């Protein structure tokens, strides 16, 4: 039975969630800067950047288990009072990040041209995308080290330092990008490849700062810096489940984009506007989920009333997510005539946007609860359940309406009905799981 003492003060949740939000938003916001800088070079470089950046983002986003999985494992150890072992999870995650990053770099160089030709339809766009991607891939190991660094620091409930480190790297990239792309004085710059060089520079600075922090923490706690195969295998097992879950998301959203384009440019553009707002809004709600991961993991690792505290936290963050979701739903409903024209003046596109917009606004409360409980279950290390439930929701709820909308001409209504069904099925799944005790496994390490 939970008591008032098991509740975590709201200020504690905000202490972890508030710094996490800028970290989550840093990369999307920097891509907007990147797009604006390269856009001044003309249509072909901008199209090349669009193709290459999507490929690079897909590769790195699929490996976010280095962050989420490490948070879950480190948080349990932190809650159990084993601070040195929690830092050790960061050491092993960093070794894994370096190994996978080098693999991504090598394979990426081999497939960069074929992938760019396929997505860019050959010609000048594929040439531009390939040149950018080959340079940007050099930053893959650094991006993955940063993910691992975020993971172990969140696990020990330190979200302030990751904020400073990530903002330092992104600020440097934003400052040098215009100079490298367009030049300064009599130097003409190096064109769109300068954008990739700026990315790698900022990523290298962030990764170096995370490595310095990790080495200092390891030395302070007498933590070995060498690889530990047992821990690496456990991290890979958790990563496998999170990777499968992430692939389910990508299959759904890529299918939705493919179907939307077949209804014409206006429908595709309207879908893109609302979907990007959905992704950005997910970042806000994910900040609460990150706080839930750290707090629930620490509670389950604690030897005293860990199960009761974790159960109380699940109820708390679900309510916080619901309140946020209702607030955002009302806000976006009010902004339906104000916000879409910010993205495009095209009347054909603006006419179609409301079809998806009302689904988007109505789903905010559902999304608030789902993302919050996702964080709870991730913090508990319940990745296998999340993998299976997400795959089931995708196969049953998302994909059939999307492809049926193409067959029967339902357009955006069919596509966003699929997304709504997907979220509702996930709500039922995580809600029932959270009400049960099957996710509550106490101890420093989840068996």
TrEMBL record:
Its main location: membrane. It is a multi-pass membrane protein. One of its GO terms (cellular component) is plasma membrane. Keywords: Membrane, Transmembrane, Transmembrane helix. GO terms for molecular function: antiporter activity; xenobiotic transmembrane transporter activity. It is found in: Membrane. Pfam families: MatE. The chain crosses the membrane at residues 12-31, 93-112, 132-153, 165-184, 190-215, 242-265, 277-300, 320-343, 355-377, 384-403, 409-429. InterPro entries: DinF-like (IPR044644), MATE_fam (IPR002528). Belongs to the multi antimicrobial extrusion (MATE) (TC 2.A.66.1) family. This is Putative MATE family efflux protein. It comes from Pseudonocardia kunmingensis.
């Amino acid at each position: 039975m939970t008591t008032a003492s098991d509740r975590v003060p709201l200020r504690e949740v905000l202490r972890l969630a508030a710094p996490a939000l800028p970290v989550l938003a840093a990369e999307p916001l920097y891509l907007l800067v990147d797009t604006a800088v390269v856009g001044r070079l003309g249509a072909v470089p901008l199209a090349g950047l669009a193709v290459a950046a999507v490929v690079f983002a897909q590769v790195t986003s699929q490996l976010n288990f280095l962050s989420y999985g490490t948070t879950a494992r480190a948080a349990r150890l932190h809650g159990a009072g084993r601070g040195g072992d929690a830092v050790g999870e960061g050491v092993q995650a960093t070794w894994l990040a370096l190994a996978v990053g080098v693999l991504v770099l090598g394979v990426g160089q081999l497939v960069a041209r074929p992938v760019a030709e396929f997505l860019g339809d050959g010609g000048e766009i594929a040439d531009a995308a390939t040149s950018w991607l080959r340079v940007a891939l050099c930053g893959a190991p650094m991006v993955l080290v940063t993910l691992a660094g975020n993971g172990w620091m969140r696990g020990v409930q330190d979200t302030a330092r990751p904020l400073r480190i990530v903002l330092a790297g992104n600020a440097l990239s934003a400052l040098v990008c215009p100079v490298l792309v367009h030049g300064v004085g009599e130097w003409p710059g190096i064109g769109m490849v300068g954008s990739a060089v700026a990315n790698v520079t900022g990523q290298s600075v962030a990764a170096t700062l995370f490595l310095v922090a990790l080495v200092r923490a390891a030395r302070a706690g007498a933590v070995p810096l060498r690889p530990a195969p047992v821990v690496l295998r456990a991290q890979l097992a958790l990563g496998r489940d999170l990777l499968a879950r992430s692939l389910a998301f990508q299959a759904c959203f890529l299918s939705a984009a493919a179907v939307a384009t077949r209804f014409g440019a206006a429908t595709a553009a309207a879908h893109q506007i609302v979907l990007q707002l959905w992704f950005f809004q997910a970042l806000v709600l994910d900040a609460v989920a990150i706080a839930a991961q750290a707090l629930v993991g620490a509670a389950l690792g604690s030897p005293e009333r860990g199960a009761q505290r974790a159960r109380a936290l699940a109820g708390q963050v679900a309510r916080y997510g619901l309140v946020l979701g209702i607030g955002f739903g009302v806000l976006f409903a009010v902004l339906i005539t104000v916000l879409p024209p910010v993205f495009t003046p095209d009347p054909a596109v603006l006419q179609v946007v409301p079809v998806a917009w009302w689904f988007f606004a109505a789903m905010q409360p559902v999304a608030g609860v789902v993302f919050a409980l996702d964080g709870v279950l991730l913090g508990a290390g319940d990745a296998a359940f999340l993998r299976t439930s997400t795959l089931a929701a995708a196969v049953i709820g998302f994909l059939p309406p999307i492809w049926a909308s193409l067959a029967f001409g339902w357009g955006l209504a069919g596509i966003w009905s699929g997304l709504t069904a997907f979220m509702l099925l996930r709500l039922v799944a995580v809600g029932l799981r959270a009400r049960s005790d099957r996710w509550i496994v106490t101890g420093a390490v989840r068996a």
